[in-house]
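3.2 Worked example (two chains)
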Amino acid sequence: MKRTTISLLATVTALAAVTGFASLSAPDGTAEQETTAAARLPVERSSLLCPAPSSSEVAETEYSSFTPAGKDGGAKSGSAVLKPSSAVLADPETVPKKAPAKKPGPAKPLLTLKEPGKPVGAKVSGGDAAALVGTATGRFAPGWSAQQTTTVTAGGARGLLGVGCTPPDTDFWFPGASTAEERQDYVHLTNPDDTPAVADIELYGKDGALKTTLTEGIPVPAGSSVPVLLSTLTSQPSPDVTVHVTTRTGRVGAVVRAADEKAGSDWLTASADPAGTAVLPGIPADATSVRLVAFAPGEDDADLKIQLAAPDGAIVPAGHETLHVKSGMTASVDLADVTKGEAGSLILSPSQSGRATPVVAALRVVRGKGDKQEVAFIPATAAVGERATVSGNPAKGATLSLTAPGAAGEVKVTASAGTGGGSPAVKTYKVKAGTTTAVVPPVPAGLKGTYALTVETVETVAGGPVHASRMLALPQDGVPMFTVQTLPDDRGTVAVPKARQDLSVLDD
């Protein structure tokens, strides 16, 4: 009988690679063989994917890329580069059956970071901008983030569309999509790897799974991006749909671009992993319509208590105290102008203690009325954790929402230097239990260009978790254009078990 020993450190490293955060090492570049306790080490490689911004010829897109300074494990080298994907579909309105028709040559980098702590930016005009794929290594990897913000002033895709570029994965949930006639929702699939991926898309309406035309999955060629119009996948129009994207092989980045005939358009990013509680932070004070969409992916129904974390405490919306979500079915409720002039966040929790059923959830939020409406989406998000970052903040128009769903919390917010210059600024915020604090974030002195915001949990305070989001409001011709991005933990570090605790496998 032969005994084979597998290091837990190697196991964690392999798992990190699957989720887009590849390798770990000790600060001096060697494996932590003599570690006596679990430690948090910085990631050494990160991947990010940005969808193709728009097909509109009047689109104006701004990109930004940023890595916070520090917490790099002592790494002295590395890079962070975002470049256009190597292939695009010739016809984005069809489900792909073969490899893309256009195969441009090697793409030049669009954004390249020079130094941690200093963001970089770029601008692209028109509807030919491709999806972006990128990798950060070494000292640029921990906490690397990128933001894509597009302004479209006319046409069916009118609106301010913002999205934080996401790491590749194998499983995504998107409650809040639609296949209704007045909606044009595309799920964008981007493959960062050198090998093909195959993705499946499942749709769930109020009565359960929608019958789709997909039987063999969607091929996503290596280095390519594939947009798929959801309404072409089913003959069953549904105003509220939960989209489930998984991969049979490989991994992809996935995000939904939703366009409404009346309310404009924005990106819908994936909900946090299914959980018994959900926090959806950052409903603006002047929201004229808020719609909650939830889905229970397990075998059990979910009974949820709905609370609004307002500036002065948690309240229960009148007439909408609870929501019953049947297993495998999408549930929705119109909360109207639930904030009543005060910024807030939605908290979903089990109606009965001890009966937590995992759910995913998102909000469709509208500002304005009539032909002056604008829409944005707020998915359920994980807490800030150790640190979260969002870039692409202009001098004016940014609002930071901080929510403490349980115990009170405290965070430190750092405004970086600007893409064209400026001095960093720091401010600390306390958030009372069960409340939402909406603030204008600090702005770098002498700012030129845009800047990044880093939110960190204050380690010296024994408080509860804080959830956060950033809203950009850039009104155009009387339309209150806005977009909201959530700020989950940037996963810049990973807990590495001590190497001495090995897994042992007995082989005959």
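3.2.1 Second chain
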Amino acid sequence: MNEQLLTCDQAFSLKPETLEKRIMEFYQETQNSSVTIKYILALRVRFKLGAQEFAHILEDLVRYLFMNTKATRTMKRFFYFFEDYFQAPEWKRLKLRVFPIRNFGEKVFSVVRSLISTVRPEETTES
């Protein structure tokens, strides 16, 4: 499937039901999570421009993609645009899953900082 699923005009003029159907069919045929996320992000833009019926469009698909598929570069790039699709505990687990190295680095940095503060003597000011 080399051709484009939606044009810009279609993404911003078709009804939500039609868009949901087309995007779901596209994902089922191709299993391409990166392109699917980009299409859903375009619909999020449409929601932010005032189309309230697009508030949580394709929520089940977004949740499935982020929770059950391998995190692609595109998914990492647009990850934070979909925060309201998840509850707080799910969001925390998902951040650990999508960005494991960043979270590991932050954890190591905090542990090292706490170890240094216990060894380092208190600063005194001499006059």
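3.3 Remarks
The first helix runs from residue 8 to 11.
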